[in-house]
Amino acid sequence: MFKPVINATALALMIGSTVTLAAGDLTSRPQELPDLVLGNDQSDYAMSHKSYELETGKSYSLKVISSGYKEYAIEAPAFFTSIYLRKVEAGGMEIKATTLTQLEFEEEGEAEVYFVPIKPGDYPFYAAGLEGKGMVGTFRVR
User: 22-141 belongs to which homologous superfamily?
Assistant: First the structure.
């Protein structure tokens, strides 16, 4: 007859401790990131932020604002597939979806994205077709 033997150390670990891997607390309000403003009075190709530092398991909101000087289509394919997308607010409505492909602005406007990063890494974002004009940045997730 087989009798299971439980290692005392393993039992103590199972009973007396919990493992915490993510730094975030999803029960708190999302941390508002600095707005990403596309275009300004000095340059149609300006981008207010080129880098965002994020942590896995932490809730964030990011407002993307188009100046309306150009059509801007923000893409971040690898980033969009490595986050939990909670919602997007735009035009007085909430959009609930499982992923994003692109945030496209044909004129002046804004969209706010609520998300939780789930995979560490460095993820590029850019205004499609305007990368050569310097409209590129990075989401750095730790």
Answer: Cupredoxins -  blue copper proteins (2.60.40.420)
List the alpha helices (DSSP H) in 68-126: 77-80
Express each pLDDT in 42-68 by its tens digit.
999 999 999 999 999 999 999 999 999
Query: How far apart are the C-alpha atoms of 30 and 60, rounded to whole Å?
Result: 5
Beta strands at 72-75 and 103-105: parallel, antiparallel or unpaired: antiparallel
Q: Which residues have C-beta within 8 Å of that of residue 41, sequence separation ≥ 6?
A: none
pTM of the model: 0.80
Nearest residue to 56 (alpha-carbon basis) of 121, 142, 140? 142
Q: How far, CA to CA in Å, does 121 sit from each of 28, 29, 54, 76, 86?
A: 24, 24, 10, 13, 20
